Amino acid sequence: VQLQASGGGVVQTGGSLRLSCAASGVFFRTFFSINPVHWYRQAPGKERELVASITAAGTAAYEESVRGRFAISRENAKYTVYLQGNSLKPEDTGVYSCRTGARWGNGTLVTVSS
């Protein structure tokens, strides 16, 4: 039973990346599909912050600095939530991780070079 984040990498300023958060395990997948999922990031030397959330019904919410540039979506048939980041800035650099309920996934590093 786990939550696996992937898709990080190095991208230039203005570029794009799509992160994935996938659930595994029969019972956990059911929990995942009926609960909100959240993406967080932690920049070097800073506190972890909530970036975006999506409800089970697909309603999204965003932190102010990413609104209009990031898009969170979910594909329940694949037990996966995505975070599409566009027009990336150096300040978007950090370790991105996902959470649903009390379960955290691993982190995936996004580095935006200037």
Strand-pairing-aware structural class: mainly beta
Strand order of the largest sheet: 2-10-9-4-5-6
CA-based gyration radius: 13 Å
* Main beta sheet strand tally, sense and closure: 6 strands, mixed
How many separate helices?
1
Question: Can you offer a commentary on this structure?
Answer:
With about 110 residues, the chain is mainly beta. Helix content is about 5%, strand content about 55%. It has 1 helix and 10 strands; from the N terminus they run βββαβββββββ. It has one helix at about 25-35; strands at about 1-5, 10, 15-25, 35-40, 50-55, 60, 70-75, 80-85, 95-100, 105-114. The strands form 2 sheets. The chain has a 6-stranded mixed sheet with strand order 2-10-9-4-5-6, with no helix packed on it. Strands 1-3-8-7 form a 4-stranded antiparallel sheet. A hairpin with a 4-residue loop joins strand 7 (about 70-75) and strand 8 (about 80-85). The longest helix is centred in the first third of the chain and has 8 residues, at about 25-35. The chain starts with a strand and ends with a strand. About 30% of the residues are buried.
